[in-house]
Amino acid sequence: MLRDEQFAVDERIKILDHIPQVNRGHTVFNFPLLEKINAVELESQDEYCFRACVAYPFLEGIIMSRLLSNLLAVLVAFGAISSMAQGEAPTPASARGPLQLDFEGDAAGKSPAEFSVSRTGRGAEGQWVVLEVKDAPSGTKVLVQASDDGTNYRFPVCVNDGFRAKDVDVSVKFKPITGRVDQAAGIVWRFLDVDNYYIVRANALENNVVLYKVEKGRRSDLKPKGTGREAYGKDVEVPGGKWSTLRVVARGNTFEVHLNDRKLFEVEDETFEGAGKAGLWTKADSVTQFDDLKAVSLDKQ
C-alpha cells in the first residue's frame, strides 16, 4: 500500500467524489498502454485513495513494480470491465450449443479440428484422420480410426475439446471396415482423461452392444438394468461394412443405449457424476469410419 509519506497531501482524493461505484478494498487499474497509466489503489482503512500517473516522473518507479506484478490480473479485469461497459454479460464456461459435426469442413488426411486423440491401455496410438469416401452419410467426408494394431487391450480415443457436459445426448453414425480382433465403434462421455470415462460400444464381430466404465485405466462392463450377474450388454446384429447409428442418453446416474433408433437397455452407475468431454472410441485393430457426430447438453443452465 502506498503511504502518505510518499505523496503530497494534496494528491489524496476522496473516493466518493472522484471514483463513483468503486468498492473499497479493491485495486483497479485502467491503462491505455500507448498513452498513460492510471493506477487507483484504495485505502483499506478509510474511503480515500491515491491516483498516480506515469505522467508524473517522480511516481514512475513507485508504481511500475506494482503494475508489473499485477499485469495478468489487470488485463483480465480490464477485459471484463470493458465487456460490462458495452452491455455484454459474461458467458458461463459451461454454456454452449450442441455439437454437430459431419467433418466436411476438415482437411482430408488430417485429424479434425478441436479434437484431441489419445489411447487407453497399450499398443500404438490411434490414427484419427478425415477421409473422403463415396458413401458418407453426409457430404463426402468421414472420420476414420485407421490404425490396425491388434493389441487386445488397446482403446484409441478421439474427444472434442470444446464440448463439456454431465447430462448429454450423444449419437454417431459408424461403419466397421476391418478388424480380426475387433470391429468396434464407441461413444465416450463424461471423459475426464484417458483413464476415466464412460463408453458404450457396438461390435460387428460379436454382434452386441455393451456399456463400460473406464476407471483408473481399467475397463469393466456395467450390467443392464433387470439382468443378472452373467449379463454382458445386449446381443443384437451389428452389420459390418454398413452404416449404423449408435446413441447414448445420459441423465444423472441413468444411461439409455440405442442402436439404429431402437432402445436396447438402460444402465445405472454413479462412478463419474460430474461433467466431462464427449467423443469417439475404438478397440484393438478396429478400422472404423464415423460421421454425423452429435452431442447435446441436457444440463440445466
Helix/strand layout:
Layout: E1 12-14, H1 15-18, E2 27-30, E3 38-42, E4 48-53, H2 57-69, H3 71-85, E5 99-101, E6 115-121, E7 128-132, E8 141-145, E9 154-160, E10 168-178, E11 184-193, E12 196-203, E13 208-215, E14 218-221, E15 234-235, E16 244-251, E17 254-259, E18 262-268, E19 277-281, E20 287-297
Antiparallel strand pairs: 1-4, 2-3, 3-4, 5-20, 6-9, 7-8, 8-20, 9-19, 10-16, 10-20, 11-12, 11-19, 12-13, 13-14, 13-15, 16-17, 17-18
Describe the protein.
This protein is mainly β and 301 residues long. The chain folds into two domains: 4-85, no CATH class; 99-297, Exo-inulinase, domain 1 (Jelly Rolls), CATH 2.60.120.560. The protein is built from three helices and 20 strands. The protein is globular. Residues 1-95 have low confidence and may be disordered.
The gyration radius over C-alpha positions equals: 28 Å
Sum up the overall morphology in one term.
globular
Low-confidence stretches: 1-95
- Strand and helix order: EHEEEHHEEEEEEEEEEEEEEEE
Number of strands: 20
Number of helices: 3
Class by SSE composition: mainly beta
Mean pLDDT: 78
Give the name of the CATH architecture of the largest domain.
Answer: Sandwich
For the record, the count of structural domains works out to: 2
Main sheet attributes: strand count, strand direction, barrel closure: 8 strands, antiparallel
Proportion of strand residues: 35-45%
By CATH's scheme, which homologous superfamily of the largest domain applies? Exo-inulinase, domain 1
Distance between the termini: 41 Å
Regarding CATH, which class of the largest domain? Mainly Beta
Enter the CATH topology name of the largest domain: Jelly Rolls
* Estimated helix fraction: 10-25%
